[in-house]
Amino acid sequence: MDLEIKKDLSCNWFKLLQEAFCNDISILENNKIKFKSKTWKRNQKKDEGGGEYRILQNGKVFDKVGVNFSKVYGKFPKKFQKNILGAQKDPRFWASGISVVMHMKNPLMPAMHFNTRYICTTSQWFGGGIDITPSKKDDLEKRNFHQTLKNMCNRHHKNYYRKYKKWCDEYFYLPHRKEARGIGGIFFDYKKENFENDFKFTRDVGITFQLLFNEIIRKKIKKKWTIKDKENQYIKRGRYTEFNLLYDRGTKFGLQTGGNVDGILMSLPPLAKWK
């Protein structure tokens, strides 16, 4: 398959997913609060792509949710080339993806994160994942969450869940705190064995996240919470913030490749606390 066709297929899927997620989120908010949308360009002087980030805040369900789409291209900075597969030979790149972060009003609901991307250098690959960060322990939710991911992975390969769960557990870890960010999920990168199969898996990850966030929210949307629950959520958000600013590869990639700062930092919660 021609590379340009692969780019179009992946890019169009990510944009379609952005529309689908935003539609579901608006329905959960009973269409009473609107997304604020902003388009951006990577370079104001020449065409190097850009994207659109959409943020909804102060809803009845969501304190803050961001749904970002991007399609960017150009050349990696020299200091960044050695860290990117295929960029050592040629600094030119093309990348498209979607990223979602949900910070919930109800502290009994976990913060939720999803992203998928397709990156082209002299090599091409998919990456992404799903993970959640509860501020209050819920063993049943944890079991159901991981079983859903396992079922999805098993549709593609029996080893995917074990491999990508382990990768997620290792990635979303705060070494300075000696603790995990949340309860994990799946994380994959450099997926480049076969475009058709890898793209099918990537699409399934997006559809599964859509099913998961709707299910988790609808189960807890009317559950009562306490001030103590909210305070615990604020502390957990502090840990979330630490990880995203210190360790998150997506944050570093976006900032070092000329991405939109507001869009990149949309993952940060609207309010967090430390003690």
How would you sum up this structure, described in words?
This protein has 275 residues and is of the alpha+beta class. The protein has one domain: Coproporphyrinogen III oxidase, aerobic (oxygen-dependent coproporphyrinogen oxidase, 3-Layer(aba) Sandwich). Helix content is 42%, strand content 27%. The chain contains eight helices and nine strands. The strands form two sheets. A seven-stranded antiparallel β-sheet has the order 1-2-3-4-5-6-9. β2 and β3 form a beta hairpin. The chain is globular and about 55 Å long.
Features:
275 residues, two-stranded antiparallel ribbon, alpha+beta, oxygen-dependent coproporphyrinogen oxidase, 9 strands, 7-stranded antiparallel sheet
* Gyration radius, rounded: 18 Å
Biggest sheet architecture: 7 strands, antiparallel
Q: Shape from CA axes?
A: globular
* Percent range for β-strand residues: 25-35%
The main sheet orders its strands as: 1-2-3-4-5-6-9
Mean pLDDT: 94
| CATH superfamily caption | Coproporphyrinogen III oxidase, aerobic
Order of helices and strands: HEEEHEEEHHEEEHHHH
Brief summary:
The chain is α+β, with helices and mostly antiparallel strands. Helices cover 42% and strands 27% of the residues.
Q: How do the helices and strands line up, and which of them pair or pack?
A:
Layout: H1 3-28, E1 36-41, E2 49-57, E3 62-75, H2 78-81, E4 92-104, E5 111-120, E6 124-133, H3 139-154, H4 160-171, E7 173-174, E8 179-180, E9 185-191, H5 195-220, H6 227-246, H7 249-256, H8 261-264
Antiparallel strand pairs: 1-2, 2-3, 3-4, 4-5, 5-6, 6-9, 7-8
Helix pairs in contact: 1-5, 3-5
